[in-house]
């Protein structure tokens, strides 16, 4: 009716009532629970009555409401519910839609109703920030609201896109659709990672055996990142995986504790934590970084380097003196591979030294042996660390300052079958979404010239760790920064000691050890190693202080931003170096491989 339309324009302080004795609707106000309310309020008399409709008119009105009125109510309901703070307006629209189908006699009052009437709908506020703390089935409402993006992404990627390709005959979407797919996939990954993490926590808490719980956490704790990285390795994107691993380490050692310190420091002037517990975590973290980057350190120190030149042309000595160019004698370039006469030089516009590609360096095979040793020993070190911290020396984590009740893990009490079902379903959905994410990311990088290393350091690394970052910030704002720090340290140790060996062995299994065929190696770029080492030292130094505040958090965030900016320019420089250039070692090695007939099907490259 027109009166209800006027009510929807400004419902605050107005009452939708009916006479006592009629069928009651559920009352909704700002004191109601999130999903349902069963309390009816008997209030006053007065107002205007709406005429009861006859049977035929009633059904005509129901049909009219379904076609024209209900879709608008559902649209407004969905928008308000998704924003979360406007859930009062969402519930108001839902109750109004129920009333439209029942078509009972109601009164619309602008004043406080008298005795003899029941209040059906009443609200005073359009928004309430407290709704952000509500949970549905043990999960935060904001994460639950992101679940529809999972099915939208899967529908677009596996149903809509093949239909468009078949109808148009085009194998690729161009421009905006890739961006839409990328953001839908990113929004979809966030709730799935949280559900997987919560299921693992709830399931491991119910295990009777310490070993079973430890193995469960080690196996599934990094499953989200492993799925994405394994998909990228299968697509022959090893540089993206290396950047993602580096970004994950920087994220959990700088971004996670930095945000927790900053936001927790705004609420609390200073938070203290156990230095002994932080020391144990720091020692294990240092061990993890040494084991993960030892092959890189070996190859950087003893690996071959070459001079690469660009803009080269053949000129004689007189021309070189006139133009003041860089000259390289042709007989020193490649023996028996050129018909140039003596006295002629290759004049190049620029030259620089660079590390020889792994494929063309005989030393890589020795570094590969070190990689196998590290991949075998790192999980053993992780198991020893688990046994030490969770079984034999648990007293280290008992902090004396327990006067106040602090926030901690608040996982829902899910049954074991429910945990297993949620874990399996979310893992399968995440695997499907990872294919969509990488399928949309690759053309976007090519289209907009975004460095692959930068994308791996930010998008691929941060999004799967969003749930851990949010949890760490929440615990810090509840006065429990010690738990936030432990989340970051444990995640870094798990990345270095569990993820990296699994990725290395998985890459060997599907691509062999030939780095030119998309194989993931433990020889990282030098900047990746230095960034992780510096981050580890900074976090270790802060941990030994035993206290946190907003200043230290700001420092960690600034260092993280500086690394991100640096990796953007490193990615641009890498793209520049990949342009065609004159490289004597590469030229010789490529000729040798063409002669020997080696290709990516070879499991091992022999360059001797």
Automatic annotation (TrEMBL):
Q: Which UniProt keywords apply?
A: Ion transport, Membrane, Phosphoprotein, Transmembrane, Transmembrane helix, Transport
Q: Which GO terms describe its cellular component?
A: endomembrane system; vacuolar membrane
- List where in the cell it is found: Endomembrane system
Q: Give TM segment ranges.
A: 59-87, 141-158, 178-197, 209-234, 240-266, 278-300, 370-390, 419-441, 491-510, 522-544, 550-570
Pfam families per record: Na_Ca_ex (PF01699)
- What membrane topology term does the record carry? Multi-pass membrane protein
Gene Ontology MF term list? calcium:proton antiporter activity
GO BP terms: namely: intracellular calcium ion homeostasis
**Name recorded for this polypeptide:** Sodium/calcium exchanger membrane region domain-containing protein
* UniProt domain Sodium/calcium exchanger membrane region: residue ranges: 180-296, 420-568
Q: Which domain of life does the protein's organism represent?
A: Eukaryota
Known PANTHER family for this protein? VACUOLAR CALCIUM ION TRANSPORTER (PTHR31503), VNX1 PROTEIN (PTHR31503:SF10)
């Amino acid at each position: 009716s027109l009166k209800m339309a006027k009510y929807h324009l400004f419902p605050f302080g107005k009452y939708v009532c009916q006479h006592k004795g009629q069928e009651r609707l559920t009352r909704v106000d700002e004191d109601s629970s999130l999903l349902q309310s069963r309390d009816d309020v008997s209030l006053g008399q007065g107002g205007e009555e709406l005429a009861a409709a006859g049977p035929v008119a009633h059904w005509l009105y129901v049909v009219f409401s379904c076609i024209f009125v209900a879709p608008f109510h559902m649209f407004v309901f969905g928008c308000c519910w998704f924003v979360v703070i406007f859930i009062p307006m969402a519930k108001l629209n839902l109750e109004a839609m129920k009333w439209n189908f029942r078509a009972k006699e109601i009164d619309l009052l602008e004043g406080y109703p008298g005795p003899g009437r029941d209040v059906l709908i009443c609200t005073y506020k359009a928004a309430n920030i407290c709704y952000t703390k509500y949970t549905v089935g043990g999960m935060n409402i904001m994460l639950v609201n992101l679940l529809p993006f999972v099915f939208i992404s899967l529908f677009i990627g596996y149903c809509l896109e093949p239909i468009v390709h078949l109808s148009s005959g085009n194998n690729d979407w161009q421009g905006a659709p890739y961006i839409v797919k990328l953001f839908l996939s990113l929004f979809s990954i966030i709730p799935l990672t949280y559900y997987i993490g919560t299921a693992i926590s709830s399931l491991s808490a119910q295990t009777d055996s310490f070993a079973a719980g430890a193995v469960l956490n080690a196996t599934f704790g990094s499953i989200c990142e492993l799925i994405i990285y394994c998909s990228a390795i299968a697509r022959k994107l090893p540089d993206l995986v290396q950047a993602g691993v580096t970004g994950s380490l920087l994220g959990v050692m700088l971004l996670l504790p930095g945000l927790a310190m900053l936001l927790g420091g705004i609420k609390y002037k200073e938070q203290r934590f156990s230095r002994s517990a932080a020391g144990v975590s720091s020692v294990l973290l240092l061990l993890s970084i040494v084991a993960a980057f030892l092959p890189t350190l070996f190859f950087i120190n003893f690996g071959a380097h070459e001079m690469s030149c660009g803009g080269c042309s053949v000129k004689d000595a007189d021309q070189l003196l006139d133009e003041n160019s860089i000259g390289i004698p042709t007989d020193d370039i490649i023996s028996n591979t050129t018909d140039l006469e003596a006295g002629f030089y290759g004049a190049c516009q620029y030259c620089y030294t660079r590390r020889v590609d792994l494929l063309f360096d005989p030393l890589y095979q020795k570094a590969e042996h070190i990689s196998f040793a590290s991949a075998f020993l790192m999980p053993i070190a992780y198991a020893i660390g688990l046994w030490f911290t969770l079984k034999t020396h648990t007293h280290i984590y008992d902090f004396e300052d327990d006067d106040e009740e602090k926030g901690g893990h608040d996982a829902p009490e899910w049954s074991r079958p429910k945990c297993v079902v949620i874990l399996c379903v979310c893992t399968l959905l995440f695997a499907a979404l990872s294919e969509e994410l990488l399928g949309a990311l690759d053309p976007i990088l090519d289209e907009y010239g975004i460095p692959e290393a930068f994308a791996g350091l930010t998008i691929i690394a941060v999004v799967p760790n969003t749930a851990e970052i949010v949890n760490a910030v929440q615990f810090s704002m509840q006065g429990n920064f010690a738990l936030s720090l432990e989340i970051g340290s444990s995640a870094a140790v798990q990345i270095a000691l569990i993820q990296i060996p699994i990725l290395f062995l998985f890459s060997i299994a599907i691509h062999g050890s030939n780095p030119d065929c998309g194989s993931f190696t433990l020889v990282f770029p030098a900047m990746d190693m230095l960034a992780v080492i510096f981050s580890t030292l900074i976090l270790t130094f802060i941990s030994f202080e035993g206290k946190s505040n907003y200043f230290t958090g700001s420092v960690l965030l600034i260092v993280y931003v500086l690394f991100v900016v640096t990796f953007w320019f490193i990615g641009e420089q890498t793209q520049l170096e990949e342009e065609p250039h004159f490289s004597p070692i590469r030229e010789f090695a490529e000729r040798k491989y063409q002669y020997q007939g080696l290709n990516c099907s070879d499991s091992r490259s022999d360059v001797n």
